[in-house]
Amino acid sequence: MEGQRDVLGMYIGENESAKFWLTILNNLKNRGIADMLIVSVDGLTGFPDAIEAVYPKAKIQKCVIHQIRNTTRFVSYQDIKPLIADLKRVYAAVDEPAALAELECFEEL
To answer: What is the pTM of this model?
Structure first.
């Protein structure tokens, strides 16, 4: 947690795939990145498996933006802005208890 934070690389591939990211993760491991604590991912099929293959202790979570997009997928256009305003109180909470309280309020709406 107190370690250095650096840009470790910028990667461009012809197509994004779990195999592409597995190559990148192996490259990072070979360059000395011994472990990853938390990895935030989108919904790319096979990506969590690729991470687990190289960094088995890593906690994998879906990024908040992708979670919100999935939440709004079935909401009509005119209702999205009010929904996002309500969800923002959950995601912007200062700690877990506050977020859980906001989530309970959201469920009541």
So the answer is: 0.65
Q: 38 pairs with which residues across the strands?
A: 59
For the chain, 109 residues long, give each residue's pLDDT as a single digit of tens. 677 778 888 988 888 899 999 999 999 999 999 999 999 898 889 999 999 999 999 999 988 788 788 778 889 999 999 988 988 899 899 999 999 999 999 888 7
Count helices and strands in the chain by DSSP H and E runs? 5, 2
Q: Which two tokens stand for residue 3?
A: 């370690």
